[in-house]
Amino acid sequence: AFSPPSINMTKATTQPVRLYTRGVVTSYKRSIANVYHNQSIISLEGVQTKKDTEFYLGKRVAYIYRAKREVNGSKIRCIWGRIMRPHGNIGAVRAKFARNLPPKSLGAPVRVMLFPSRV
């Protein structure tokens, strides 16, 4: 009878796979006098030009934050949004969220999901 060689079958210790790109909420869309809270400007990690932003158009964005009161057993909440269009020439994008982002979110990290795919 065949007996396979004895190999130490241990699970490989690898880092978990991150299925999103990091971004930072930079500002709201604005002019000199007016601020438009319904659109947020987001800087994406590793994106430096307007051409690089084309891949991210239409992708979902999650702003995750902690609240004081617990709901459904969790204090962590999320506001979902979608990347609409580029903003400027240095790789920033404009995103629209289901509810306008609070002022506390300025400078905070967001997760840019790699779906839906347009490839």
Protein model, in words:
It is extended, with a radius of gyration of 20 Å. It has 119 residues and is an all-beta fold. The chain has strands at residues 20-30, 35-44, 60-71, 74-87, 92-97, 109-113. The termini are far apart.
Which properties best describe this structure?
single chain; 119 residues; mainly beta; 6-stranded antiparallel beta barrel; 0% helix
Outline the fold blueprint:
Layout: E1 20-30, E2 35-44, E3 60-71, E4 74-87, E5 92-97, E6 109-113
Antiparallel strand pairs: 1-2, 1-6, 2-5, 3-4, 3-6, 4-5
What does the overall shape look like?
Answer: extended
Mean pLDDT: 92
- Low-confidence parts, pLDDT < 50 over ≥5 residues? none
Helix fraction, binned, reads under 10%
- Give the neighbour order of strands across the main sheet: 1-2-5-4-3-6
What gap, in angstroms, lies between the N and C termini?
51 Å
Radius of gyration: 20 Å
Beta-strand content:
over 45%
Total count of helical runs of at least 4 residues = 0
Number of strands: 6
Give a short account of the largest sheet.
Answer: 6 strands, antiparallel, barrel
SSE series: EEEEEE
**Pairing-aware structural class of the strands and helices?**
mainly beta
